Amino acid sequence: MRRRHPIGPAALVTLLAILIAFTPVWGQGNGRIEGRIVRPDGHGIGGVAVVLQGLGRATITGNLGSYSFDDVPAGTYSLSFTLGDRATTEDDVEVTAGQTVEVSTEVDWQISFVETITVFSASRQTERITEAPAAVTLISQEQIEREATNGQLPKLLEFTPGAEVTQSGLYDFNFNTRGFNSSLNRRILTLIDGRDPSVPFLGSQEWAAATFPADDLAAVELVRGPGSALYGADAFNGVLNMVTKAPRYSRGGKVQISGGELDTRRLDFRWAQDLGSEWYLKLTGGYQESEDFSVSRNTGSGGPEYRPCSAQFPTGCLEPELVPLFTQDVELGFGGVRFDKYFGGKVLTFEGGTAQIEGPLAVTGIGRVQLLDVDRPWARFNFNTVHFNALAYYNKRDASDQRSLRSGGLLVLNTDNVVGELQANTNFANGKGRIIGGVYYKEEDIDSANPAGIQTLTFGKRSEDFEGAFAQLDYDFTDKLKGVFAARYDDSSLHDSQFSPRASLVYAITPNHTIRGSFSEAFQVPNYSEFFLRVDVAPPITALAPIEGICALGGVACGFNQPVRVLATGNPSLEVEEVQSFEIGYSGIINSKAYLTVDLYQNDYENFITDLITRFQPELGGLFNDLFPGYQPPAGLPAPLAAQLLATLQGSLGPQFVFLSNDPNTGAPILVPVSYINFGEAQASGLEIGLNYYVSDDWVFDFSYTYFDFDVAQQLAADPVLPNTAENKFSIGLSYIGERFDAAVKYRYTDDFDWNAGVFRGPVPAYDLVSLVGNYRFNDDWLVGIDVSNVFDNEDYQSFGGDLVGRRALARIQYSW
Asked: How does residue 637 score in pLDDT terms, banded at 50, 70 and 90?
């Protein structure tokens, strides 16, 4: 870690001002066109190319069928609409200075759903999914509404290509793609309406802290592969972008009651309304009580997978925890409010919310931690126009009561951050080229002090800042070939400056069949835990108290009369992880019936950061982490007594003596057996296949397959670096979607693999599961449904150290107005 002089927010704003200088603004005498292209039933059609004749300007419609043109000189125009070989026009569109003209176009085109899919996250602009310069998975609003009963957001993606959805407790998910998973995975940037809700200390997600019902999501997009060129450090393996419903387009209310196994009882509420004068309001809220899959392990019982470690079983074992679960129940409460104001082509959004969490467990590198009192308030501001977006948000986490079951210790973690991002875009060369650019700034504070003022997780309080600037150019070289070039510069008080480029070429064999090739570089900053962790990883050692007598003979105090803490620590000398990625992919719509994707990639890693590993590694030259060298007796202790002290300690501690060190602040003896380190080079490669086949208007067949392989240049014999993911995974599914009734059954299989993350090391046997959902609509107001995860109750653990995950069957009744 290195400190540097930040470039500061003022310099970043200057960079954005340069971008804005190239952005069109409404000139005097200019107007605006906005509209939708819809089916006869009123549903919008996405992916339609819209050309403003005479000016040569073009855009495409989003998933709601909407489009707009700003800065249009007063006059009369024609609009052309094209999707594949289907086309229509709107003539005599009259634009008046300073006014917006609305155009609604209805077409009776016979088109399939897959032809209309658009995405945003791959290049921060709306584009057809077949033309995106990256591998993208989209979960549509309609699918979310059918499958959202369980309230577990990661499960929306568990049957999709490349997604690694590892579940332990009810809300303890590690979500990743393309390998090198870990406890509390931090390699996927997760955004909700542009806001990153991750826990800053770990960079991971707290899935129980969502402040909206799952079916308030309008879309979920997963971009697989490095995304630092546009999104920065956390987009190491990809970006998960979730967008909630705008109240203007989802007016009305909904109350849902659900319940079932694990004694689950849940209430969800949503209401959106037009307040007049182009103001719109949305309210969301909910409450849940349930049990969890977790059980106590303080006796070491629970089956062969919970056997205590020994010389016979150094791996594939779990040490008994010091304390039992503090509660068997999970209690969640959440709420949010949003105001949108529309004027012209601009939208102003103010929103905020909070979540309270009691009871869930999280499997971490230091053992299982139970969250007993966590509050997650947040606020967001957004101002959006066609060519400009300003985003600011605030996240806070007050966690006054978290308990380590392994050590019994109280872990406090209070964090907050303030983030601002400005983005601008413009077209050039008659719409053939597009430029996107922006700047980013974040300030973040971390404090783990308990009521006595003692830090429970870190060396001390931390306050850091982060800055970034990014730009992307894409250009249509021909009607068939598009190039996309992006780069980002990031700087921070935590790391040296980083430059992240990306280049992609997308070639359209036909409008519905494309191939692409891309190269990208990305980086991952060590999280605060990896830099600054200081936490008890096992009960303190009290058996060394008699040794204090040796120090007493020399008239000094060594501290062995007090319990000697056993700590897991961070390593402030860590460097950022880096990856270079090469990828080729195919996206195609076949006979308007099937959507097929095939993606091949190779990732080359440098400065790979291990999970918590034993601090003595012969392959690394012995003891690592210079902050904690071998133990030194007090300076005032005579040399003969110092030698006697060291010999006695070595005899008492045996092999653990090598980990004995001094507290850097007090000099007291501590034991530091595990820490983090950068470890050489690694390589991963894989294949991802996805197929959605629309058998008919009612039946859909889904298939996905993921292959993963890896190699580590120099492996550690005692603590091997593992990707913690299976070599082979696949899923199949069949859905029926009728006017009143829908149902889906899906199957997922995962190969066996080895797991090594922190204190948990052992095999994960192959597992499979079947999920079932179904809904029946009595009328426009009333709906009943079921959601059954793991239908056959195959109790398996999906990560070593995780809990056995069994069946969870829920039923719901919903009233809408």
From this structure: very high
